[in-house]
């Protein structure tokens, strides 16, 4: 697997080849990050495509350390996903208010509804406030450090850690209040 440092070096030498390498490394993880935020496959595909267009246009402006490259990519992806969510005027349901309403996740042909636990987990995550949803997804699924999460969320590591732990507690409470049916 090519490292971020190698990708950045290749981009400096040969932007087209470097971008292909970047796509090979990040297309799938970025798609799934966005998918967890927007839910629908088609929306995730659109947002992923727009994310990589924005990354390509902004590559010359990235002058950070290779260690910050992943966070930079995820921040662009997050912004694009949130832009799409806001554009779609999605209803946000809070786990603090009515956990039962979190069962109203939109249908998606790419979701395996036979795995009830996974569906319930996704419903709980989708019902979290955006900041907690981001922190949870980035930590749990993308296995980012709190420093990386803070960079993506334009926050502090302590705030990212707090958001993650609050989200985790809400999800646990949701799962315990809504046992398998």
Description:
- With 181 residues, the chain is mostly helical.
- It folds into two domains: 90 residues, RNA polymerase sigma factor, region 2, helix turn helix motif (Rna Polymerase Sigma Factor, Chain: A), CATH 1.10.1740.10; 90 residues, Arc Repressor Mutant, subunit A (Orthogonal Bundle).
- It is built from eight helices and no strands.
- Helix 1 crosses helix 2, helix 2 packs antiparallel against helix 3 and helix 6 crosses helix 8.
- The chain is globular, with a radius of gyration of 17 Å.
- About 6% of the residues have low confidence.
Short description:
The protein is mostly helical and 181 residues long. Helix content is 70%, strand content 0%.
By secondary-structure content and strand pairing, the structural class works out as: mainly alpha
CATH-level-4 superfamily name of the largest domain: RNA polymerase sigma factor, region 2, helix turn helix motif
The succession of helices and strands, N to C, reads HHHHHHHH
Largest sheet: none
CATH classification class of the largest domain: Mainly Alpha
Total domain modules: 2
How big is the Rg?
A: 17 Å
Total beta-strand segments: 0
Helix count equals: 8
CATH fold name of the largest domain: Rna Polymerase Sigma Factor, Chain: A
SSE inventory with pairings:
Blueprint: H1 4-13, H2 15-38, H3 41-58, H4 66-88, H5 116-126, H6 130-140, H7 146-153, H8 157-177
Fill in the keyword field for this structure.
globular, Arc Repressor Mutant, subunit A, 2 domains, mainly alpha, 181 residues, Rna Polymerase Sigma Factor, Chain: A, single chain, 70% helix, 8 helices
């Amino acid at each position: 697997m090519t490292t971020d440092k190698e990708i950045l070096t290749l981009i400096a030498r040969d932007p087209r080849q470097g971008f292909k390498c970047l796509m090979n490394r990040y297309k799938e993880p970025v798609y799934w990050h966005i998918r967890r935020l927007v839910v629908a496959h088609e929306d995730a595909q659109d947002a992923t495509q727009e994310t990589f267009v924005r990354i390509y246009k902004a590559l010359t402006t990235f002058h950070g350390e290779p260690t910050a490259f992943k966070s930079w990519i995820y921040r662009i992806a997050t912004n694009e996903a949130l832009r799409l969510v806001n554009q779609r005027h999605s209803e946000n349901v809070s786990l603090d208010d009515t956990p039962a309403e979190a069962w109203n996740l939109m249908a998606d042909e790419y979701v395996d509804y036979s795995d009830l636990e996974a569906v319930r987990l996704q419903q709980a995550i989708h019902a979290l406030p955006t900041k907690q949803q981001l922190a949870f997804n980035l930590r749990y699924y993308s296995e980012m450090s709190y420093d990386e999460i803070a960079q993506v969320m334009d926050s502090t590591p302590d705030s990212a850690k707090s958001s993650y732990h609050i989200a985790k507690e809400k999800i646990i409470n949701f799962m315990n209040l809504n046992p398998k049916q």
